[in-house]
Amino acid sequence: MINKSEIKFLTPLNIATKTNNKKCYLKKKKIHYIDYKNYYILKNFLNEMGEILPRKRTATTAKQHRRLKIAIKRCRHIGLLPFTTDNFK
Question: Taking the model in full, what pTM does it have?
């Protein structure tokens, strides 16, 4: 007779499910109003080339992301953020 301790499974019994625990940067820092003059905050939502990062990567809501895009575009027109660059950060 085979004991239960001798039975080996291909996968472990305690399989950890992959959870997406991304938290929004704006909620972490408790930023309620996205201002285009705060370019040091908006800089976190741009990649090295100066492109706006997608929602999935920044974990922002749709409403926040729309406001964020508008603020970044206004900041670019004023000249606080570059449109494109080689080495931004």
Answer: 0.71
